Amino acid sequence: MEWTDRAVVLSARRHGDHAGVLVVFSREHGKAAGLARGGQGRAGRGALQPGNQLQVTWSARLAEHLGRFSWEPLAASGALWLDDPLRLALLGAACALVEAVLPEHAPHAALYDGLVGLLSALGEAAAATLYVHWEIALLAEVGYGLDLTACAATGSTEDLIYVSPKSGRAVCRAAGEPLRDRLLPLPAFLAERRAGQGGEVGQALEMTGHFLRRCLQAQGGRALPPARLRLAEMLRAI
Amino acid sequence: MAGSEIERLVQLLARLPGLGPRSARRAALVLLKRRDSLLEPLLQALAQARDGVKTCSVCGNLDSGDPCALCADPGRDDGLICVVEDVSGLWALERSGLYRGRYHVLGGVLSALDGIGPDDLAIDQLRRRAAGGGVREIILATGATVDGQTTAHYIADRLKGSGVTLSRLAQGLPVGGELDYLDDGTIGAALKARKIIG
Questions:
Q1: Rounded to an integer, what distance in angstroms lies between the CA atom of residue A152 and that of residue B28?
Q2: Which of A147, A206, B79, B138 is the most buried (most CB within 10 A)?
Q3: What is the Cα–Cα distance from B191 to B182, expressed in whole angstroms?
Q4: Hey, are the CB atoms on B150 and A46 less than 8 Å from each other?
Q5: Is there a contact between A102 and A26 (Cβ–Cβ < 8 Å)?
Q6: What is the spatial distance between Cα B173 and Cα B7, in angstroms, rounded to a whole number?
Q7: Are the Cβ atoms of B146 and A82 closer than 8 angstroms?
Q8: How far apart are CA A224 and CA A237, in angstroms?
Q9: With contact defined as beta carbons under 8 Å apart, do A67 and A59 qualify?
Q10: Strands (E), B39-193
Q11: DSSP A92-113
């Protein structure tokens, strides 16, 4: 079988001298792995950096085989941010999360479009805020959708400052006060639909990190990828 | 077809970088045909390397002495440390003959795929060298890859406040490179790192 699709490189691991095992997130075919001949050679290595966008053709005799990739570069998103610690960390965390959280061969076209949008918006000032929204979209795709529009207890849309760690729904100040030690703080920028400032983005990543951990725990007790942990650490320090 | 000794030799040679099963078979055949002039000296060289080559306790280089010849060389600039991923990077810089400072071999780059975290790299040793005094500048010469530059930024963060100037190698057009043949990433990096002329 064979398919051709647009894809974002998630990782490429050396296999032999010049080949690599390439993992991509494709629009119509989801996460897929395959052998990329020449992928670790001088010509291929640059194209197969995480975050780069490719046109890939995957072929294998059976769908469950590892398969082989051929590729054409479309956009070098990864290479553009090598000198920017924050943007490189955002890119690395997004790719690592897709690889860790999504199952293989399950299409998530909306999430793919969101990732491509995030990669092209990395140069914007609000890139970290966009990243948080993308993580929330990722959670929704894997069944951990957050509802931050109204209070889970009262239905109020005002003064939403907590998130229930169980339901992922917002909780207002009045309803959440008795349980505040058990609730997660909801950064104001998410409820107010504006760009995160100061430590707000780090706080938002603490919140989404809780649900990502739950998701990964349910998938065999895996931990958050190191790239995501480093991003949270970096934004906590801001 | 071949005895078990030869098969074992071929299997081991095929594990070396650059050698597949066919080239390993050819190499084994040449070694066995030229026992006195090639196999025997190779055996001796391998044994000497096994017994004599050490990892330098200062920089992580491989050499017959500890500290290595580069660390022991009084003619080198102590104020300059170049951080490389692996010994192969150190050799590449030495081949150029353009760098006269000291080195620090990290032992890899941060990589979730390979399970390499900060504790697996010689970052603490680098911090101790930076804090030891006399170091003016640390050049982060990790690869121009996402993992390489993530590692460089991580090290830069850990060395913050050490008072040492941090720099990294430039990225962009290779010497002899023509735009037509370069990938988008290299062209993008070259545009970002462009220099004013005059």
A1: 72
A2: B138
A3: 12
A4: no
A5: no
A6: 46
A7: yes
A8: 19
A9: yes
A10: 54-55, 62-63, 77-84, 101-105, 137-140, 165-168
A11: HHHHHHHHHHSPBT---HHHHH
Return the H-helix or E-strand segment holding A85.
helix A85-101
Q: Model ipTM?
A: 0.83
pLDDT, tens digit, 9 for 90 and up, residues A31-82: 999 999 988 877 788 889 999 999 999 999 887 888 999 999 998 888 788 9
For chain B, counts of helices (H) and of strands (E): 8, 6
Give pLDDT tens digits along chain A (238 positions).
899 999 999 999 888 878 889 999 999 999 999 999 988 877 788 889 999 999 999 999 887 888 999 999 998 888 788 989 999 999 999 999 999 999 999 999 999 999 999 999 999 999 999 999 999 999 999 999 999 999 998 998 889 999 999 999 999 999 999 988 899 999 989 888 888 887 899 999 999 999 999 999 998 888 999 999 999 999 887 7
- For the entire predicted model, the pTM comes to 0.86
Please provide the DSSP assignment of A147-186 as one string.
Answer: B-SS-TTT---SSEEEE-TTT-BEEEHHHHGGGTTTSEE-
Partner A contacted by B183 (CB < 8 A): yes
The SS3 call for residue A53 is strand
10 Å CB burial of residue A106 (0-12, 13-18, 19+) is exposed
Among A residues 195-234, those touching chain B with beta carbons less than 8 Å apart = 225-227, 230, 234
Nearest-neighbour CA in chain A from B74: distance (Å):
34
Topology match between the domains B4-52 and B62-197: no
φ and ψ at residue A142, rounded to 5 degrees: -105, 15
B4-52: CATH number = 1.10.8.420
Would you identify the CATH topology of the domain B62-197? Dna Topoisomerase Vi A Subunit; Chain: A, domain 2 (3.40.1360)
Burial class (CB in 10 A: 0-12, 13-18, 19+), A129: buried
CB atoms within 10 A of CB B85: 21
Report A:52-81 residues touching B (Cβ under 8 A): 52, 73, 75-76, 78-80
Length of chain B equals 198
Among the partner-chain residues A46, A47, A83, the one whose CB lies closest to the CB of B192 is A83
Going from N- to C-terminal start, the domains of chain B cover 4-52, 62-197
B171 vs A: CB within 8 A: yes
